[in-house]
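Researcher: Before we compare anything, I want clean individual predictions. No alignment, no superposition, just each chain on its own. First chain goes here; please echo the sequence and then give the structure tokens.
Model: Echoing the first chain and its structure:
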Amino acid sequence: MAGMTWTIASEPYDSPAAAALWRAYYTEVSDRWYLLHEGRRTDPAELEREIAAGAGADLAPPGGRLLVGRYDGTPGGSAGVRLLDPDTAELTRVFVLPELRGRGGAPLLVAAAEEAARALGARRIVLDTRTDLVEARALYARLGYTETGPHNTDPYAEHWFRKELGPARAVN
């Protein structure tokens, strides 16, 4: 695997790569929830409805960005940001395909999302996640996010995090 690297770039939320990653992300988090709480996978019809309903238009400019990470040129992960107010961006859809986990993609995607949030004018970034997504909670803590009180009323959110963003880094 020597020489394989991640590249991250902004991409339309409805590009083929973004749509495939959204499907993989939603399928995994939905199945995890249903397996934990009801002992079954997501009903296929429900899955299709929710994927269509959460297409991601809020991750389009001017108020949002969707970033796609490619590992050795192949789409392998995503992260999105959207402005909640002029100073606050929300981090969402942080996902790396299971077969590419452990190769450094998630921290790179989060860092790129933080830069995108700064470029949108945000001074802080917030996110929510669930208790069963222990890998996500550990990642955010490692990357300097602090657990806080709720910033939304999402029925599936159980943990909320926040990070103050410094000024945008100079691009060389």
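Researcher: Okay. Second chain, same rules.
Model: Second chain and its structure:
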Amino acid sequence: MPPPDPHPPEVFDILKRKDPRTRIAVAGASNNPEKYGNIIVRNLRSKGYTVVPVNPREPMVEGIPAFRSVRDLDAPVDLLVVVTPPPATLRILGEAAEAGVPAVWLQDGSFDAAVLEFARKAPFRTVHQACVMVASNY
């Protein structure tokens, strides 16, 4: 079986909507301004998306209430951006599949062969080998 397309256009289309009703969860969201989990939250929020932080140890990220897990989200999201190490990413992808998340964006460093294999079989579309902050500029 050929590897999945790392850039499925329907996931990029979610970003192109530029609609504030577009809900983007960020797993690995952080209050540390030097970490990508914080940089991505700030970047997407500055572009007008509704950002939903996910972090089991932070009750708030950048002044936004955070959820402990994807399982705990209070409403559906259009996209889940993952900024966690591969072992945590595998758990998060399982939660995303259970929660019916339609699309997942794996930032560099969040995936390995096992994560990509799980994503290939998952019920959602997955982007990898691309940066959500760059893609959301278009």
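Researcher: What stands out in the second chain?
Model: The mean pLDDT is 94. Additionally, The domain at 9-135 is CATH 3.40.50.720 (Rossmann fold).
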